[in-house]
């Protein structure tokens, strides 16, 4: 895509998205459609209206102001998204913040200026800026220009990616300006990947192999990550296959990402269908002893999981 992405959020003082203290820029838009997405509001590239029923004070200001009559308390999601034109008037008028417009256009200079304010914290902690999503490589020209501008400011850059991109473009436009790449390997089998993520993963695995080969010769860190999703990615079969794949390619460091069931609430806010709403395991945290057994699969092969 050539057009600029919308920014979902910019989160400062993060300790979970790379080394040191970081600023994380979340973009909207992703080529995958993972059924468990922890940021479901980032799937679509365009703007959306979010409704948090727990914040609503029932004043009906939004209902009265909506020009399309798209708001109705009889609607389970409150918003009729077939009628809604995303004009944003309801969000602007909402006194409690229950309604909000998700996705904001920002210029590169604006993002860099916000990030640069925390340079003293980056310098003292070994931190920097992490670009996440969604999928930042969906907007590779914008991504390239942003990374270049951040590095010109002396800021460490890290990309979180699903790995689905054109490698030639990535090598030319992204690699020259990147210090670290956190690369998701979610599901090993291509058919299962298509079932749960919407697309086969042949290119994702191919791109990882190419980046892994380059990382041995170039000055960037590559870290494979696997989210632990009950009965989908967090199965012995899947984790055995991923860990075998990593060892085959000489990789001895990886990360297993803890499952967070709070994504169900986010899905409801944007009026999206939640096919796992009534599945008990998908609404609970994975027990510690079970998580430990997943880490053991990697460690038995000599792969550190942190």
Task: Describe this protein's structure.
With 306 residues, this protein is α/β, with parallel strands linked by helices. The chain has 2 domains: 6-45 and 103-299, Aldolase class I (TIM Barrel, Alpha-Beta Barrel), CATH 3.20.20; 48-102, Alpha-Beta Plaits, CATH 3.30.70. The protein is 33% helix and 17% strand. It has helices spanning 61-65, 89-93, 108-116, 119-125, 140-152, 167-173, 190-197, 202-215, 236-248, 263-269, 288-299, and strands spanning 6-14, 22-27, 48-51, 99-102, 104-105, 128-132, 157-161, 180-184, 221-227, 254-257. The strands form 2 sheets. The protein has an 8-stranded mixed β-sheet. Strand 7 (157-161), helix 6 (167-173) and strand 8 (180-184) form a beta-alpha-beta unit. The longest helix is centred in the last third of the chain and has 14 residues, at 202-215.
| Helicity range | 25-40%
Domain unit count = 2
Number of strands: 10
The helix-strand sequence is EEEHHEEHHEHEHEHHEHEHH
Low-pLDDT ranges: none
Give the mean pLDDT: 95
Radius of gyration from the alpha-carbon trace, in angstroms: 20 Å
* Cross-sheet strand order for the largest sheet: 5-1-2-6-7-8-9-10
Short note summarizing the structure:
33% of the residues lie in helices and 17% in strands. The protein has 11 helices and 10 strands.
């Amino acid at each position: 895509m050539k057009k600029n992405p919308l920014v979902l959020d910019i989160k400062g003082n993060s300790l979970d998205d790379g080394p040191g203290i970081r600023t994380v820029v979340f973009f909207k838009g992703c080529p995958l459609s993972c059924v468990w997405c922890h940021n479901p509001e980032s799937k679509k590239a365009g703007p959306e209206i979010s409704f948090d029923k727990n914040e609503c004070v029932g004043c009906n200001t939004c209902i009265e102001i909506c020009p399309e009559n798209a708001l109705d308390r009889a609607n389970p999601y409150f918003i009729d998204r077939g009628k809604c034109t995303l004009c944003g008037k309801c969000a602007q008028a909402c006194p409690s913040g229950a309604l909000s417009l998700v996705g904001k256009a920002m210029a590169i200079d604006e993002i860099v200026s916000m990030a640069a304010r925390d340079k003293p914290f980056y310098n003292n902690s070994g931190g920097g800026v992490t670009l996440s999503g969604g999928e930042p490589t969906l907007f590779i020209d914008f991504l390239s220009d942003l990374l270049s501008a951040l590095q010109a400011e002396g800021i460490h850059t890290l990309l979180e990616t699903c790995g689905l991109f054109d490698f030639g473009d990535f090598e030319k436009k992204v690699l020259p300006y990147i210090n670290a790449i956190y690369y998701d390997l979610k599901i090993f089998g291509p058919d299962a990947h298509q079932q749960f993520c919407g697309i086969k993963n042949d290119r994702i695995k191919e791109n990882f192999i190419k980046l892994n080969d380059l990382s041995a010769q170039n000055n960037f860190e590559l870290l494979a990550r696997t989210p632990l999703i009950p009965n989908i990615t967090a199965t012995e079969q899947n984790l055995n296959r991923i860990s075998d794949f990593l060892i085959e390619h000489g990789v001895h460091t990886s990360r297993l990402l803890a499952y967070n069931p709070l994504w169900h609430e986010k899905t409801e806010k944007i009026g999206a269908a939640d096919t796992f709403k009534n599945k008990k395991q998908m609404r609970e945290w994975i027990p510690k002893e079970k998580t430990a057994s997943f880490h053991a699969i990697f460690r038995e092969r000599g792969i550190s999981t942190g």
